[in-house]
Amino acid sequence: MDADALAALRAVDRDHVWHPYSSALTPGDPYVVESAEGVRLRLRDPDGTPHDVVDAMSSWWCAVHGYRVPELDAAVRDQLGRMAHVMFGGLTHEPAVDLARRLLDLAPDGMEHVFLADSGSVSVEVAMKAALQFHLAAGRRRTRFLTVRGGYHGDTFSPMSVTDPVGGMHSLFRGVLPEHVFAPRPPAGLDRPDDDPELVAWERTTRDLFSQNAADIAAVILEPVLQGAGGMHVYTPRVLDVLHRLAREHGALVIHDEIATGFHRTGPRWAGDRVATTPDILCLGKALTGGYLTLAAMLCTREVAEGVSVGEAGGLMHGPTFMGNPLACAVANANLDLLAARDTEVEVARIERRLREGLSPAADLASVADVRTLGAVGVVQLREPVDVPGVTAAAVARGVWVRPFRDLVYTMPPFVTADDDLDRITDALTAAIADVHG
């Protein structure tokens, strides 16, 4: 791209393109991506300087195999030769049926039905709607959900309502969104012992809160073990056990939001695999297509599906236009093949070891409050909000693309990232923080 073309592109972007979580009046100055291959992006910075950078973000956690993956490219091209899209109402097709079968084979025990959606947020909308319909069909007017503070479940209306209403991304809408029941954020630490005083106190408070609101609670909704965009907060699986038991005791359903954590991002295939109990509803997305096309899914038990279907409506009242898109389903099937062929759980364990070792020096920086890793997730938490443009530029100058938020500089690299590129990521993040925050 020559200088004139680059300038013209930037001008239109600045004047007319509204980027996520940004102002239309005072837009930022985004980097221009010219191409991507493997785990690298070819960028132009705001001055027009080219950079070849390692993608430390997997394009918001979905491009788990990197870019221009031959097997995934081939799946898209092959499906294009048949059909790119067809409505899913009254029709079905092989890619969608194959994907549903394979997801059920991989899912926690008890999942028997798959509802395909077009984004992770929509899959949460569908899950919440299914939980409400399940109780309404049985004559129970349960209209509230219980979750824990610090969570994030998407940017559409219902998911916003179960995102932390005070410190979360959608606190602006407090008072407009439905008011649900928020237990305290669980104490941090994956390996926190069950008799830890903070955990015992959390359990006592949560039990009381659940009991006080049990008659209204349709379901518990959680990001198992790792809260993503709410702060990359890691908590013990004991929390899942407690909330599963409370839900069972009081007749509520359990929804696991594994959009960010599923497909081995935290180590096991599902973050919820760390406990023996299984959810009634499971939401999947992000890595489902290897970052190629938008697709998500809501899985549920036969009990939930039958409970919804016997109600007055006669079915689940949702139907996205691009539900079951054949291109997306075809590439999702190819993605599942790659995840199996590459022994992904072993690869994630390798990444976890490398991130833990490589990020450990960041703990010595004066600006750093905490360093933590879980699976293919590495997090450096600062004592102050991140200077996002400053840290981003400092990392790009060292050959790494990173997109911090709030007080977090973090990485969720593609699962195929080699050890030398993982070292480049951890070195760049640590140096960028030192340069900008000290």
From TrEMBL:
Involved pathway(s): Cofactor biosynthesis; biotin biosynthesis; 7,8-diaminononanoate from 8-amino-7-oxononanoate (SAM route): step 1/1
Gene3D superfamilies from the UniProt entry: Aspartate Aminotransferase, domain 1, Type I PLP-dependent aspartate aminotransferase-like (Major domain)
Classification via InterPro entries: Aminotrans_3 (IPR005814), Aminotrans_3_PPA_site (IPR049704), BioA (IPR005815), PyrdxlP-dep_Trfase (IPR015424), PyrdxlP-dep_Trfase_major (IPR015421), PyrdxlP-dep_Trfase_small (IPR015422)
Keywords, alphabetical: Aminotransferase, Biotin biosynthesis, Cytoplasm, Pyridoxal phosphate, S-adenosyl-L-methionine, Transferase
Binding site for substrate: W60, Y152, K286, G319, R403
Location of this chain's protein in the cell: Cytoplasm
Molecular-function GO term, any one: adenosylmethionine-8-amino-7-oxononanoate transaminase activity
Residues found modified as N6-(pyridoxal phosphate)lysine: K286
Main location: cytoplasm
Enzyme class name: transferase
Binding site for pyridoxal 5'-phosphate: G120, S121, D257, P320, T321
Subunit-level organization: Homodimer.
HAMAP family listed in its UniProt record: BioA (MF_00834)
Official protein name in the record: Adenosylmethionine-8-amino-7-oxononanoate aminotransferase
Species this chain originates from: Phycicoccus sonneratiae
Phylogenetic placement of the source organism: Bacteria, Bacillati, Actinomycetota, Actinomycetes, Micrococcales
